Amino acid sequence: MRIAMLLFSFLVALVASVASCPSTCSCSEEKSNCTAGGLTSWPTTLPLTTTTLILSGNQISQVSAQDLQLYENLHTLLLDGNSLRSVDAAKTHPNLEKMDVSGNRLSELNFLSSLPNLRQLEASSNLVSAIDNATLAKNVKLEWLSLNDNPLADLPPSAFDNNFKLEFLMLSGLQVTSIPAKLLDPLTHLTHVEIRNNINLESLRDDLFYYQGNLKYLRLSNNSLRSIPRSLRNLKAMVSLDLDDNPFECDCQMFWFANWMEKKPAKLKLSNGTVCADRRPTVEQLLSLQCSAVQLETSSLIQEVVYGQDVILTCNFSGTPLPTITWITPDQTVLRWPSVTESNDTLRHSVSLLSAAQLQVGNVTRFTAGDYACHASNALSNVTAFMRIQITPTSFRQIQLRSLIVGGLCVFAFCFITLIVQGFRYVMDRFGWWECCYCCGRRLSPRAQQARNLLEAIEQYKSQQLDRLRDNYNGQVHRIRENCNQQMDRIQQGYSGQVRYLRGVRDYGTQQLTTIRDQYNDQAKKVYDYTVDRLQTVQRNYVSQRIKVRKFSAHQLIRLREKYKFQQKTLNKILENLPAFYIDSCRTATCARTDSIYFEDETDVDTVDSIMKQGIHLDLDLPDVGLEDLEGDEDMEEQQERKKHRRQPSSGSLGLDFLFAPIRFPALQWRRRNIVLDEEDPPAATSEVVQVAVEICPVPAARGQQVPEAAPVGTPETLADADTTESSQQSTAD
């Protein structure tokens, strides 16, 4: 039921819209066609949803602002073939994109400012006689424009400044005599250009199409063109070129066109009606000409003259047609033959042209000396020759000498006149002849007159000096300004190309530097993180290894102590059984003497090892080395190995052959020996010597002397217990 209601409402709306359409029009929901419907006014009963409205071939004479606002969704409006005299668009119509008002009687196009989204405009065959810079200023989206067959006599240079999206441009059938050079510069997206049927158009500027690199189709037929613009050589994308029905003057001015046609791209098609004024084919006529570029034959490079002397500069050029020669003086005065243009009165009578190739400079001074330029040009090329006039140094020296002579003469004359005047005054004062003059009239005193004359002379001298300084300053300022202008012109000419190149290099260099800086920062951060991680790992390994080495050294020292304690006990047991074998030796006043040792807690491991290798010789100077020193030295194990290899067993070592009878041991007298433990680093001070002697049999004393008692020595068991206690304490401390 609901669907049926919707269908019914739709049919009612459709019938209502069709019923409101005029009988001479055909209407649909979006398109209304009233072509040749005899309408004399704007139709107001069309569907409000119309987007395309065709009113061609009617008698509509005016369109008001309310008429356009009636159909807000209108996109396309065709009003060609009517009698429109004005279009009033006071309010903005943002949806209209295509409009055709050709074949009407419009005299202006001011209504375009209310159509900001207009993309296509056909305004040909109207009565538009002038357009200004504001006519198309707001149509920034315009892509297609036709102004054909309008009585336009002038086109402003900035007419298309805001229409940079324009692709199709038709300017045919106008009354223009020339087209401004910069008219097409903003239109870089042009692909089709038609400038035809302009009978008053005789020439186009050479740089007219300089920025139209995307131009593909160019129509310049049926004009009064006498030459072809040279900027056609820059149109690399051009596919079709129409130059028919133009009275071209096929001379050397167009010789470049023949060379360009020989090298033109294969895709470029030239119309067959391109002929010269005498109806001969243009390319053939140009190739038959004998044209040559300008070449410099002879010139005066550097002329050294005496101050005040006359000189003639010469520059001869060759070329077909004959080149036009222009001279430029150091003060930028331009001279042409036969007419002469002067810009400085000081050179009016000193510089003159004898012929087109000869320039005479009379009475050479600092103002006329300098760089001269001789510029020659014809239709094919131009060449400039530079010449210089220099004043010889001898002339300056002569001028300086003359100045000194004249100055000396002036000083002498001044002194001589002053002497005469002073002598005259002295005579007048000496004889009192001034009184006669006082009687004749009122007169100042001699001193007052002298002061007055002096002041007048000073004022006169000051005014002369100020005039000279002013003249000199003006001359210097003039020369500096001229030199600055010359330098600026040379710099601008020399570096104008480099500025464009450096801009590109700057943009590229900035991009590269930014990329390199980012890469460098990333790499530096990675290297820093990796280095920190490796350093932490090495530090942990170093601490772990140091702890292991210390523990290993402590365990080895404890093992050596236990081992030597066991050997000591064994040796003590052996020594307990020795007195029975030495009874006979004691009776003969000889006694075998042996020593025993015990280990202290602070005994060096290297010292113990040396003692074991040398036998039981204990008369050693042992340094005071503790367990902390053993643990603190990381290279102790390597030093121990070197010491073991360096030390050899002593030749005086006592063997164990005494255990086998019937060997008798002689009396042994042991002495202390100072042994350096480390040959490379001897100790600074000798530590306490450890000496333990075991008296087996007392040595007989001499007569009258008492036998000294043996030093009390602890028993091996006591010593062993003491060593065990100290060893346990040291292990606990470690």
Polypeptide structure, described:
This protein has 734 residues and is an alpha/beta fold. Among the domains are: 292-391, Immunoglobulin-like (Sandwich), CATH 2.60.40.10; 551-733, no CATH class. It is built from 12 helices and 25 strands. It has helices at residues 2-19, 65-70, 255-262, 282-287, 393-431, 434-440, 446-576, 583-587, 605-614, 627-632, 636-646, 716-733; strands spanning 26-27, 31-33, 52-54, 62-63, 76-78, 86-87, 98-100, 120-122, 144-146, 168-170, 192-194, 217-219, 240-242, 269-270, 292-299, 302-305, 311-320, 324-328, 334-336, 351-355, 358-361, 370-377, 382-391, 594-595, 693-694. The strands form 5 sheets. It has a 12-stranded mixed β-sheet with strand order 1-2-3-5-7-8-9-10-11-12-13-14, with no helix packed on it. Strands 16-23-22-18-19 form a 5-stranded mixed β-sheet. Strands 15-17-21-20 form a 4-stranded antiparallel β-sheet, with no helix packed on it. Helix 7 runs antiparallel to helix 12 (716-733). The radius of gyration is 62 Å and the shape is flat. Mean pLDDT is 77; it is low at 12-19, 341-346, 585-605, 615-634 and 644-734.
